[in-house]
Amino acid sequence: MKKILVTLVFAILPTFTLASGGSAHLDTMSPDLADQPSLQRGAATFTNYCMGCHSMKYARYERVATDLGIPLDAYEENLIFSDAKIGELMTIAMAPGQAKNWFGNPPPDLSLEGRLRGPDWLYSYMRAFYADPSRPYGVNNAVFKDVGMPHVLADLQGVCDHKPEIGAEPKVDSLSGRIISDGTCESFSTEGSMTKAEYDETIYDLVNFMVYMAEPSRMESESIGKWVLLFLIILFIPAYFLNKEYWKDVH
Ligand code: HEC
Question: 174 pLDDT band (50/70/90 cuts)?
């Protein structure tokens, strides 16, 4: 009996730890892998702002270009900054040892990050940087405390002058019904070039792209799924009439 109890406790334990990990307050987003323009914008943001430090070493440029509907030569010209060729893996030149000295932790490969952390976490994290003079790069993050990564999109978002309340219930003006504050940053110590809505959209596209990267075949299965359903619907028509024909004389 005791053995069974112990086994049960160990079997159930991981669910609790998982639950506590996931219950941190996050803002939510629903990825849309059918939205090609969004994925293309996300790829551009990732290449311009992230690939200096983060690789996506399980992906090939060529596959990404094809999946996202970007002509190979246009991709090579605009979205590959190293001397890599279109058929190569999306690696970077930064040596992990050196990076650890600069940032405390090396920037991890982000190929699978969309699945590892999930879209809500990523969407929240990229909107959760705020000014903190005690940190080496002058910023901290409300979702990833004491993160070693600088706020690389500060010129777009600006630098928030207080810790934002990610995942907070929106405060609504009871008279007009307008949202007064949704917990994300309202005031900045350094202004960025984008409005709050524009920045949120940029991060939506970026995370959409990262979710696609973590599971490129999902895009294919989703589109095949539609054809399979259509096929079944069409097949139903002759099956229906055939069935009617067979039973005609029985009744
Ligand atoms: C200047 C280098 C640098 C750039 C540019 C950069 N990062 Fe980072 N990033 C880091 C470092 C270093 C870490 C590790 C931080 C730590 O563990 O404390 C990190 C961590 C992360 C993590 C958390 C990984 C995890 O699960 O622990 C995510 C997500 C991330 N970066 C996304 C991005 C995105 C998206 C961009 C582009 C918009 C970007 N990074 C640009 C240096 C960088």
Answer: confident
Q: Are 42 and 206 in contact (CB under 8 A)?
A: yes
Phi, psi at residue 241, to the nearest 5°?
Answer: -70, -35
What letter represents residue 205's amino acid?
Answer: D
Q: Among 53, 101, 126, 137, name the best residue to mutate to test ligand 1's pocket (greatest count of ligand atoms within 8 A of Cβ).
A: 53
Ligand 1 pocket residue status of 82, Cβ below 6 Å: no
Give the Å distance between the CA of 36 and the centre of ligand 1. 24
177 versus 5: the higher-pLDDT residue is: 177
- The one-letter code for the residue type at 127 is R
What is the phi-psi region of residue 91: left when phi exceeds 0, alpha when psi lies from -120 to 50, beta otherwise? beta
Verdict on whether the full-model pTM lies above 0.90: no
List pLDDT tens digits, range 175-223: 888 777 788 888 999 999 999 999 999 999 999 999 999 998 888 888 8
> What CATH class does 25-224 carry?
mainly alpha
Residue 102: CB within 6 Å of ligand 1?
no
Burial zone of 49 (CB within 10 Å; 0-12 exposed, 13-18 middle, 19+ buried):
middle
Does the CB atom of residue 147 touch ligand 1 within 6 A? yes
Say how far residue 17 (Cα) sits from the centre of its chain. 23
Spacing, Cα 51 to ligand 1 middle (Å) = 10
For ligand 1, the distance from its centroid to the CA atom of residue 148, given in whole angstroms, is 8
